[in-house]
Amino acid sequence: MPPVARQIPLFAAEPPQEPLPYGRWAEALAKRFGAASDVEIGDIAWFPDRTFAGRTYVPATAPAEGGGEVFGYVSYTREHEGAQATDFEAVADYTEETADQNPDWTLDLSDHEIGHWRGPQGRRGVITLVWGVALVPNGAVATAELGPTTTDQCELIDNRFTLVSLDDYTGDYIEVRLYGAGGAELARESLYEEE
Predict the structure, then answer these.
(1) Do 57 and 127 form a contact (C-beta atoms < 8 A)?
(2) Could you tell me which residues come within 8 angstroms of residue 169 by beta carbon, excluding any fewer than 6 positions away?
(3) In the beta sheet, which residues pair with residue 185?
(4) What is the rounded distance in angstroms from the CA atom of residue 35 to the CA atom of residue 40?
(5) DSSP assigned state of 184
(6) Are residues 112 and 120 in contact, defined by beta-carbon separation less than 8 angstroms?
(7) Residue 139: which of 89, 101, 189 has the closest Cα?
(8) Prediction pTM value
(9) What is the pLDDT of residues 25-49, one digit of tens each?
């Protein structure tokens, strides 16, 4: 195989390892997520976990009291598989833009920068955590695309997915694509609004 011309990280995060949070674990995460929010929130929708660089991220969204939505994540580390989670961090942001107000959306996406990456010749990009909900039926897998390259993928769990990808690199930005079980593309969305 010849050398790769475009050296970028591919599938850098571990695939989801646990079911969506429930019970006491969901309550513990919810307490941290709620504390990070500036507004009161309703029931939390959790997304598949992804582990990158030793830190596990569990994204979440929740309706905000008075309208809008709170989105973010709770992250933690473990000394080893099966160890207690420690070093918790929670991030929560607010948006007035929701899927309910935008019936033309095919994917409801949220994102947050979780790191930086330096490539050859001083090129720089950001590592971005992306989570979302498929708003069209029959989705099976979501992918992150950076220009011509698929950088990550995640099987849907309850129509939800989480991706970790290099972003904003050499003029390319993440586009999320949704595929059905047979491999047909069902939807695609950029993280960035088209002007």
Answers:
(1) no
(2) 8, 117, 119, 123, 124, 125, 126, 146
(3) 179
(4) 9
(5) -
(6) no
(7) 189
(8) 0.95
(9) 999 999 999 999 999 999 999 999 9
